[in-house]
Amino acid sequence: MSQSQHNIILIGMMGTGKSTVGKWLAQHLEYNLVDLDAALEVQEGCSIASIFTNQGEAYFRQAETGILQKVLTSTKQVIATGGGAVLNQENCDLMSHGGWVVALTAEADDIASRVQGDGLRPLLAGNTEERIRSILEERKNAYLFADYTVNTSLFSAEQVGSMILANYRV
């Protein structure tokens, strides 16, 4: 594995456990944890919801690519991406070259229960469960480029992290 692959990059729909599993992995590997959305909020000086509202999704996606490029200049990181980071082919290429990509999946019902009442997710405005099913359908092939995939509906965050570590080779 090349030096650039000393990163684990977590992709997947919102609510699949990227942040939770990312924290667990970072602690066990003694890697830095980078939450891409949080890094973007720091860079932009406002929340993701505010970026969507004030600048629009296109601006957000462009800024997301820029922050991903910046983050991937470092190694020994666990990077938790935003759920839609995979919508841009450039991001997928950056992730494939910048680390070992792990897709976290989950059943729609589990995602809905995990994100229920979270008003900070602009793409879930309206009927949450209906929106989740729609987004899952739209993105069903978007995560296929991952090196490894785990369904987090079936396991705890610790079990998911252990499975990832068992398959990760530096």
Q: What are the main properties of this structure?
A:
49% helix, Rossmann fold, alpha/beta, globular, single chain, five-stranded parallel beta sheet
Care to describe what's here?
The chain has 170 residues and is α/β, with parallel strands linked by helices. The chain has eight helices and five strands. The protein has one domain (3-167): P-loop containing nucleotide triphosphate hydrolases (Rossmann fold). Strands 2-3-1-4-5 form a five-stranded parallel sheet, sandwiched between helices. The model has no long low-confidence stretch (mean pLDDT 88).
Q: What's the structural blueprint in terms of helices and strands?
A:
Blueprint: E1 7-12, H1 18-29, E2 32-35, H2 36-44, H3 48-54, H4 57-71, E3 77-80, H5 89-98, E4 100-105, H6 108-115, H7 128-138, E5 148-151, H8 157-167
Parallel strand pairs: 1-3, 1-4, 2-3, 4-5
Summarize the structure.
By secondary structure, this protein is an alpha/beta fold.
CATH architecture: 3-Layer(aba) Sandwich
Question: What's the domain count?
Answer: 1
Q: Average pLDDT, to the nearest integer?
A: 88
Spatial ordering of strands, largest sheet: 2-3-1-4-5
Report the biggest beta sheet as strand number plus sense, adding barrel if it closes. Answer: 5 strands, parallel
Q: What name is given to the CATH topology?
A: Rossmann fold
What ranges have pLDDT less than 50 throughout 5 or more consecutive residues?
none
Give the SSE order as H and E letters. Answer: EHEHHHEHEHHEH
Structure class? alpha/beta
Calculate Rg over CA atoms. 15 Å
| N-end to C-end Cα span | 6 Å
Helicity, as a percent range: 40-55%
Quote the beta fraction. 5-15%
Number of strands: 5
The number of distinct helices, counting runs of at least 4 residues, comes to 8
**CATH top level assignment:** Alpha Beta
- Estimate the global geometry from the Cα principal axes: globular
CATH evolutionary superfamily = P-loop containing nucleotide triphosphate hydrolases
